[in-house]
Amino acid sequence: MVTNGIAYNARVRFSVIDSTNIIQEVTNKHSLSPITAVALGRLLTGVSLMIPWLSQNETLTYIVEGSNKIKYIAAQAKNNGDVRGYVTPEVVETFLNKDDKFDIKKAIGNGTLKVVKDLGLKTPYVTPSKLVSGEIAEDLAHYFATSEQIPSAIALGVLVDKNGIKRAGGIIIQILDKSLSQKSIIEIETKFKEITPITNFLENHSAIDALEYVFGDKIEKIEKHNVQFKCSCSHEKAIDSIRLLKIEELKEILEKNEDVEVECKWCSTKYIVKIPEIKKILEEKNEHLN
After folding, report:
1. pTM higher than the cut 0.85
2. Pick from 6, 66, 240, 275: most CB atoms within 10 A?
3. What are phi and psi of 105, to 5 degrees?
4. Model pLDDT for residues 130-150, shown as the tens digit of each residue
């Protein structure tokens, strides 16, 4: 469940989520190591926060491309509340910083954040920006400040223990109107810092508690939206991926006389495309040539 709303006479908007269950599910589906679970968990939490603000039929994707051990992270959210994501590779050795916390910055290295907005038109809008931190939250805040000119405070966190994901969550606060007084901005910044790390706060409080702590009686509107990990993959889409193969590649598969396993990168679900289905695809391609 993601909770959003407005405050300070609609000059400020906010969104907060306890994403623990979602990140647990993603971690289990992909069999992630602790540090890749944290990296993907942060990005997936970040994109989940945007769900209340997506237009109808809009799909938003955050992509982080790294230069070190973690090469690629993708997190996607739809207006209906469906989210999904993956990280490559799925298992990476743990990097710790001087505070003995996961060093996501070092694991990712230098890289790029890409924000992809698909409004259902022919071509999605893609906005790339260099990673300024690698810690995800800071990089998203930098994107909003530079690409959308929206000052934003973002906190994203994933706590891991020996049993897996202990707590995950995030909060974003955006100033929409620059006429907001400096006094109010300082009040927000001070309260924001006091509830971070957000995962520590959420261990003993609800997402609503976080909003009430930061904004108090300045809150004017609150809404709730369901969020769930749900992939749009299917057996038919697995067959479509086989259709992309060349005729010679299809013939090689048929010579081996073995069914083909297709794995969805977004959710690790495996689909079996059987020999008769492959034969049909080859026949269709040959007919098209003739």
Report:
1. yes
2. 66
3. -55, -45
4. 999 999 999 999 999 999 999
